[in-house]
Amino acid sequence: MAYLRNKRTMGAFAVVALATAGAAVAAAEDLPKDIILDKAVEATGGKAALEKVRTKVISGSMEIAAAGIKGTMVITAAEPDKNLVEINIENVGTIKQGYDGNVGWEINPMMGARIKDGTEKAEAKLQAHFHEENWRDVFKKVETVGSDIVDGKDCYKVVLTPDEGNPVTQYFDKKTGLLTKVAMTAATPMGDIPSESLPSDYRKEGDLLVPHKLQLNQAGQEIVITLESYKFNVDLAKDKFDLPDEIKALVKK
After folding, report:
1. CB 3.0–4.6 Å: which of 12, 52, 57, 141 could bond 231 by disulfide?
2. What CATH class is the domain 2-231?
3. What are the sequence ranges of the domains in the chain?
4. Measuring CA to CA, which residue among 191, 140, 128, 209 is closest to residue 168?
5. CA distances from 26 to 110, 144, 184 (A)
6. β-bridge partners, 226
7. 29-83 pLDDT, tens per residue?
């Protein structure tokens, strides 16, 4: 499902953006339950199609126009819970984040190498959960709390509480079932930051319907990510998700 795919991308930026217009509150007794997430699975291709995917490589570009920052990014993921995000920013360098099934980590030109722990590690683990159609495996509670208008679309507002980490609020188009917004409090080295992401430009890639654009904001910075290429069931190097030497050194301490 799209929620984890978007979270993987968000995880690179601790993303946030406000893009709602208006609100409509539905009576609690009229709100559907977890069928909304199952409908989202069907909207993006269906459980059978998602279960066939074992690895994925997503490539794209990012831009923070107000700061004159541009870069490229590659997200590599594999079942059941491995994830690597590589972001190359012009005149800054390469930021890498990963989860190898046990350790969440980051290497940043400005902050060096570090291991994630606590809530930040829990979020890295959630982002790495590969088979997003099996959302019940990682969320202990899912509650539809109302309706909102997101980018002109009437959407259900759903609060998901993971087994570990902070709750996530997601908005799903009532007509299409597609995810339109994700709001969360992201754990970062600078503290918790409210964050939002708006996926759009859904197009077919193979049997799956996936977003090709993410509009993000963090601390007043608007980030636009264009997802240009999706490759599924790619043969990955056996050491693709191995911890970098800098992280191995920290693990040994």
Report:
1. 57
2. mainly beta
3. 2-231
4. 140
5. 46, 10, 22
6. 61, 213
7. 478 876 899 999 999 999 999 999 999 999 999 999 988 999 999 999 999 999 9
